[in-house]
# Entry
Amino acid sequence: MKDPTLFAVGLITLSAGTFAFRLAGPVLRQRISFPPWAERLLETAAVILLAALVVTTGLTEGHHLAGLARPAGVCVGGVLAWRKAPFLVVVLAAAATTAVLRLLGIP
Amino acid sequence: MSSIYRTLSGGTLRDIALACLAVWFIGLSYGAIAVASGFPLWVPAAQSVLVLAGASEFLFIGIVAAGGNPLAAAAAGLLVNARHLAYGLALPDGVTGPGLARRLLGSHLMNDESVVFALAQEDLPRKRAAYWACGLGVLLCWPAGAVLGALIGSVITDTGAFGLDAMFPAVILALIAPALRDRRLSRAAVTGAVIALAATPFLPPGLPELLALLALLTIRKTT
# Structure
């Protein structure tokens, strides 16, 4: 938040744009038909964006790779999520793994 | 609410309540992470009410906290939220209306959970009831969780020691884990993640995630 005005503009853009997406569907429903491939493309784009975010926030710090503790915690969370562990368990296990490793002196 | 109670079965109401509880907990981690990333309390509070779409809010604060441009962060968040257009087209007419006020509020209540519950019901009155019950539940639970999480988060000063920085990627991973079981999606996601990771040393924050969308070009068109 180096520039509060720019931040507020970003927040309002996200809010207003999201509402426009929500309103557009019911309003346009009778007028256009939405091809299934476009729907799948949107879904795929969302998953790609989020997966990229997992990697950049989980594995890197600035322009470099992060230490060992955080990636290890994220990996533990990932394995638990894959094994369909409850959300609470996934998130707390990731944080706990990272915290314990740091307690042991691993960055 | 009494009409919703009469229209929906007990099992459906229980499932909706559980979904709202899960949303409350994600909100808790969202608020805590937002404050731990250096944002004041009003940011998760305002976003949780105005945007009301978890994944895009995580994305927005994640990119801005990493030093990215807020407009790039908003663009990334809007890409994630574009799916609501498809949701609105998939919902039967009459779920969010009639009348302007119900159309506006009903549209704002559109999210992954409310749409899933609406589509699972058999007839229009039940679809309508499930949609509004879940949508209003999320409208209450998501901001309530976010504000409480932010309050808890601002008490904790050394976030690194508690591993809070690992919570954010873990939350996103847990949210996309069901989608990653689809081979086509998981291949695209891995490709995108590799692109983002490779681009991180060279690009300003926020851009590697958008560059990851190049992975869309690797998808073979299948019907």
